[in-house]
Every structure is written in structure tokens, then in C-alpha cells.
């Protein structure tokens, strides 16, 4: 259980090398990321939908379901937690409740996007966006309802898919003017588009989303930093690795009828217990044992 106050997320964005941000879908993955030295984690809506519901990222998660995940994850780690809040779960008034509930659950950064509800993954086909003016009001509602100035509002636009890069850049500028702390232009299709988006609006932090199998090319860290990005998001890399590991181990178990062939692919018992802080709870058990 975490008792430390996370470092302000703002302080992590401008550091040399940028903020390398892993996506997590549950508290255990967040613990692994923190243990490996990552300075913040991102609760991926796609990852939670895939792992919690076993369903695709098409806007099926509810606010209360996501808030429960934020609470569990933020309680498990001492690093800042950013959450994918999709479209804000409604209109601008709904965003007020969304921000307050997620912030109360422990979110240090809240991402909102301008898709029409129900949203869909930014690397699927067929995204539709709401009017820019409506999204600006959602951003205004988010910034005015957050309880701490250290809670960052990340504005994502999916306009590239429906209207092209120029419209996406215009929207990003409007969202920054409305008060967004970080800009996220999703679904960029080429290295040139990444470079153009990264160079836009100097001084405003920008996030690049690297998705294996998605529409955006996977570029090296130094290339993205040189283009002007300060947050480098790998939203579902950990989940995809976990799926691969589970498939390999379970296929081996199915075929052999035992763990013999796949023992080397298992995290050892003692490492698993270390990651979930079993020793800390043993100490608590001793501390509060009845005399």
C-alpha cells in the first residue's frame, strides 16, 4: 500500500530525455513498472477494456469502473498516475464529475479526447469527432473543476482520422488556448506528420503515442525528442507482452500436461511475492498481532 505523495507530474515532463511513459492495465503491472524505474504510469483505457472486460476499446468502460482501477493502481505505487478518461464520460458537465472522481481516486493526470461517444481506439478506423467548441468547453470544465493545479489535463484530438492533419493541429492550438496542459495528437500516419505535429506550438508539452501495429510509425526516443515531444507513451506494450507470455505458458501446459517445458518462462515464486510486497504485510501481521 502506497503512503508517499507522488512527485508533481509537471516536474517530470521537462527533464532531459523526456518522460518515458508505460501503459498499465492493473496494479501489478504498475508495480512492475515502478520497480523497473519508470517515473510515472499511464492507465490505458484500451488495456483495461481488454484485460478487465475481455472486450475491444470501443467505449464500453464506465466511469466508476475506471475510477476503481485508478484507486487500486494509485494505492499500489508511489509514482504519478495518468488516466485515460476517454471522452470524459459525457458532456462538459459530466467532465466535472469525471475529473473530481478520478482525481480523488489518485490520478495526477487526466486525458480527455474529442471523439464522438462511444469512442473507439485511435488506431481503429472510423473515428468521428465532436465540434472543437464543444471540446474546448470540456477542457474548461476539467481545468476549473480539478482540485489541484498539479493535476494535468491532457487534451487528445482524433481529428487526423476524419479531417486531416491541418484540422488536428488547429484543434490542438485551440485546446491549448482553452487551458490544456499537454497536447496529444493521435493517429499520425508518417514520420513527416509526427515531425510537423511535434514542431507545432513550441513551449506546450506534447505526447507521442507509439503503438505496435497501429497507424503511427514507431520511432526511436531520440528522434521523438528532437521533433519536440516530451512524453513518449507506450500504452499497451506491457499488456501485449503479458498476452504473449500467457499464450506461451498456457500452450506449453496444454500440450505437456505439466509445467515442465515452460518453467523457465515463469517468474519465480519469490520474485512474484517481492513485487506484491509480501514481506511488508508479514511485518504488519507481526506488528498488529494480538498479545
Automatic annotation (TrEMBL):
GO terms for molecular function: oxo-acid-lyase activity. PANTHER family: CARBOXYVINYL-CARBOXYPHOSPHONATE PHOSPHORYLMUTASE, CHLOROPLASTIC, PHOSPHOENOLPYRUVATE CARBOXYLASE. It comes from Streptomyces spinoverrucosus. This is Carboxyvinyl-carboxyphosphonate phosphorylmutase. InterPro entries: ICL/PEPM, Pyrv/PenolPyrv_kinase-like_dom, Pyrv_kinase-like_dom_sf.
Amino acid at each position: 500500500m502506497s503512503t508517499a505523495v507522488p512527485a508533481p507530474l509537471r516536474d517530470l515532463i521537462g527533464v532531459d530525455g523526456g518522460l518515458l511513459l508505460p501503459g498499465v492495465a492493473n496494479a501489478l503491472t504498475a508495480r512492475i513498472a515502478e520497480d523497473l524505474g519508470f517515473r510515472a504510469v499511464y492507465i490505458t483505457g484500451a488495456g483495461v477494456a481488454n484485460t478487465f472486460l475481455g472486450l475491444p476499446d470501443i467505449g464500453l468502460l464506465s466511469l466508476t469502473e475506471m475510477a476503481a482501477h485508478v484507486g487500486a493502481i494509485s494505492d499500489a505505487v508511489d509514482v504519478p498516475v495518468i488516466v485515460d478518461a476517454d471522452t470524459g464520460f459525457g458532456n462538459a458537465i459530466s467532465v466535472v464529475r469525471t475529473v473530481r472522481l478520478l482525481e480523488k481516486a489518485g490520478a495526477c493526470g487526466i486525458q480527455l479526447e474529442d471523439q464522438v461517444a462511444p469512442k473507439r481506439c485511435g488506431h481503429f478506423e472510423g473515428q468521428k469527432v465532436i465540434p472543437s467548441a464543444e471540446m474546448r468547453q470540456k477542457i474548461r470544465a476539467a481545468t476549473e473543476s480539478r482540485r489541484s493545479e498539479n493535476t494535468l489535463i491532457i487534451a487528445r484530438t482524433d481529428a487526423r482520422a476524419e479531417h486531416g492533419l491541418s484540422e488536428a493541429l488547429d484543434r490542438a492550438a485551440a485546446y491549448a488556448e482553452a487551458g490544456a496542459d499537454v497536447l496529444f495528437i493521435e493517429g499520425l500516419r508518417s514520420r513527416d506528420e509526427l515531425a510537423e505535429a511535434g514542431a507545432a506550438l513550441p513551449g506546450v508539452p506534447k505526447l507521442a503515442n507509439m503503438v505496435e501495429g497501429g497507424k503511427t510509425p514507431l520511432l526511436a526516443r531520440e528522434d521523438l525528442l528532437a521533433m519536440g515531444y516530451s512524453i513518449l507513451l507506450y500504452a499497451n506494450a506491457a499488456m501485449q507482452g503479458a498476452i504473449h507470455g500467457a499464450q506461451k505458458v498456457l500452450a506449453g501446459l496444454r500440450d505437456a500436461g505439466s509445467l515442465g517445458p515452460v518453467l523457465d518462462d515463469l517468474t519465480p515464486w519469490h520474485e512474484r511475492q517481492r513485487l506484491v510486497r509480501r514481506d511488508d504485510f508479514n511485518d504488519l501481521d507481526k506488528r498488529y498481532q494480538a498479545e
